[in-house]
Design a protein that fits this description.
Layout lengths: L1 E2 L21 H7 L13 H7 E2 L8 H6 L4 E5 L3 H7 L5 E6 L3 E6 L7 H14 L3 H14 L4 H14 L2 H14 L4 H20 L3 H14 L4 H13 L7 H11 L5
Helix pairs in contact: 5-6, 5-7, 6-7, 7-8, 8-9, 9-10, 10-11, 11-12
């Protein structure tokens, strides 16, 4: 987000608006960032929208950080973004922290680091449809940093795009095991299970499809596609696939009420 009336990207703060309440003005002076108008406190999203303009930048993507020449990122402590930025040290380092948030600074020319360069170019290769190059770069990133969650994510995305869902699941599960409490890891794992479930549904293996959709929901309870798919499968089998409490809970969560 950035403050309305200030020149972006000078005032860019990659964070939810409420975070700025916890970052003292001294930090803004130190970094050259404008966190909020003098004397202003964000108490609601309505307050936030009056002074903040959403920038639409995904701070978890290295290609975005590079393209926008981002210098600072605010991450919630323990979030997927926090884990990712933390493993980019020393090219990305925390310069301030509260109990809930960390402010990271990106070093100049961080893109020249072999590991980060592999990740960055791998993300770009995948985005351009060059799966072979993306896989090579993901393998290089994993070789340079075998425990890197970001490298596992890139490899999972590459394998998923190539149709190798079994191996994609291995990498997605590795991230989930390392960060079981983050929405980030749950979303990736759910995406893989969702893809496996859809393939099983296409070949009419409804029991496998249902199991995979259930796994997708377990990983990410907000996975609308998995929820809707389970409702669809249940109805297509005459209402025998799921138990009454299970289907009722899913319908309540994912089906819009009819008027």
């Amino acid at each position: 987000h950035y403050l309305r009336g200030t020149p972006a990207p000078d005032a860019v703060v990659l964070a939810e608006p409420g975070i700025t309440n916890e970052l003292p003005a001294e930090v803004g002076k130190m970094t050259g960032l404008y966190f909020r108008p003098a004397g202003f406190t964000v108490k609601s999203f309505a307050d936030a929208s009056s002074v903040y303009q959403e920038d639409g930048i995904d701070a978890a993507r290295l290609d975005i950080l590079d393209s926008y020449e981002v210098k600072f990122v605010v991450a919630e402590t323990g979030s997927g973004l926090d884990y990712q930025l933390g493993e980019y040290a020393p090219q990305v380092r925390p310069v301030f922290a509260t109990g809930r948030y960390r402010l990271y600074e990106l070093a100049d020319n961080w893109q020249t680091n072999p590991f980060l360069s592999s990740l960055l170019e791998g993300i770009r290769a995948l985005g351009s449809g060059n799966q072979s190059q993306a896989k090579q770069l993901a393998e290089r990133a994993l070789l340079l940093s075998p425990a890197s969650l970001s490298a596992h994510q890139l490899m999972a995305e590459v394998l998923l795009r190539a149709g190798d869902t079994a191996q994609a699941l291995v990498h997605a599960q590795a991230i989930r095991d390392a960060t079981p409490e983050t929405a980030w890891s749950g979303q990736l794992l759910a995406k893989v299970h969702q893809t496996i479930g859809a393939a099983a549904e296409r070949r009419a293996d409804l029991e496998t499809a249902a199991a995979e959709y259930r796994a997708a929901l377990a990983a990410n309870p907000n996975n609308t596609l998995a929820g809707e798919a389970l409702v669809r499968l249940h109805r297509s089998t005459g209402g025998t696939l799921l138990t009454a409490p299970e289907i009722n809970a899913i319908i309540a969560a994912f089906e819009a009420p009819t008027t």
